[in-house]
Write a structure and sequence with these properties.
mainly alpha, 6 helices
């Protein structure tokens, strides 16, 4: 919705046209936004695999995910800028849309995805690791600690 709203505003102000290359740029950037969510979610799952409960896992995963997402978005924006300045015609429309929606990805990840996941981590469905949440410790291969967090030698050799 945010992407469409900005594109509509740009249509009237700078005569931005939503043609086929622009739609392709938007589709690619929407994939980048989905990838940003996947990166953060997988970092959370990594923390849960290490034995953290969900709320601390969400907090610990954010710095690593944020760094990865920002680097990825920077590379996409750099590619869009290079395409925009060194091409002509409809390829510039693709590059403009890709750059615009890549910038929107940063806004979405910081102002929507991060706060939403923080709120969802407080809900019982996710916090208890419901099997359908994707955060079930058993499905992620987490073993409960034995006697104060130490496993017996035989159990560690099996793994």
């Amino acid at each position: 919705m945010l992407t469409y709203s900005i594109m509509s505003l740009l249509g009237g102000t700078i005569h931005f046209a939503l043609n086929l290359p622009a739609v392709c740029g938007a589709i690619v950037a929407i994939g980048i936004t989905a990838d940003s969510f996947v990166v953060y979610f997988e970092r959370i799952r990594d923390e849960v695999r290490k034995g953290s409960s969900l709320r601390p896992a969400v907090q610990r995963a954010w710095p690593r995910a944020r760094r990865t997402i920002l680097v990825s978005d920077f590379v996409s924006f750099l590619a869009a800028a290079v395409l925009y300045f060194f091409t002509v015609g409809t390829v510039q429309g693709f590059a403009f849309t890709l750059g615009l929606t890549t910038l929107l990805d940063v806004v979405v990840i910081f102002l929507f995805t991060k706060p939403l996941i923080t709120l969802l981590a407080r809900r019982k469905f996710f916090a208890d690791g419901h099997p359908m949440s994707g955060l079930d410790p058993k499905r992620l291969g987490v073993r409960p600690p034995i006697r104060g967090g130490r496993r017996r030698l035989a159990e560690t050799k099996e793994a």
